Input
Amino acid sequence: MKRRSFIKKSFRWLAGLGLLTGLYSWQIEPFWIQFVHLKMPLRNLPDALVGKTLMQISDVHIGNSFDYQYIIDAFKEAQELRPDFVVYTGDYVTYEDNEQITQLKEVLKFVVKGTLGTIGILGNHDYGIDFVEEPVAQNITESLEDVGVTMLRNDAVEIAGLNFLGMDDFWGSNFYPEKTIEKYNPTKANITLCHNPDVCDLPVWNNFKGWILSGHTHGGQVKPPFLPPLILPVKNKKYDAGIKDLNDGRTLYINRALGCLRQVRFNVRPEITVFKLLKEV
Output
């Protein structure tokens, strides 16, 4: 009887723990944003930009899969930090139909902008169904440009001596990375925006030296303690989240995403990243 009683109590305890974990993963962690503060040393950084801040926001995924009022609240909180630069690294929507364009425009009334510049690229979900609908990509591009975001589609822009290169997405219908990298300037400080980190393994980089800011993985969204994420939408499973030294003059940073495709996170909190710009020594 004692053994039977122990088993019953243990089962109830485990069931309760499982229920609490499920509620936490569904109702708490998906909305428990973390502002991650890091240093970004850059070669050729102008003296005037030393100490300035660059904020990365990625994968907001506006749509019907979760309450995106949370994104608006996060944008308001981010605005209080008054970043000098803001970069958006794609996946503004989880596209089903044109309702998501309307939803995105509502959220973009609260867009976070840098005092010196605001730059964005597209992610795979910004190309519509099966990532091949160019009119959807163009609508999203125009929606962001209308609120002051400089959108780079296989292009580059220099702002205050900082050269931003922006690629269209690896899985999208307009992926021409060579057009982007040909605008790399080795005499400038360079940052490439590239939604999918798998692009780092393609032979397209033309001896690029600088930082690459990506998203796409969401850090897996669910990561058991001491184990790798259960699911990562990349070929290179080393590209989960955080800083990756590519050992060739490139430093990759993979943002864990602000939004989510499905409302579940465990041990992978949503993030907004804030970099402090420094001279590389």
Summary: DSSP finds five helices and twelve strands in the chain. Residues 2-28 form the longest helix (27 residues).
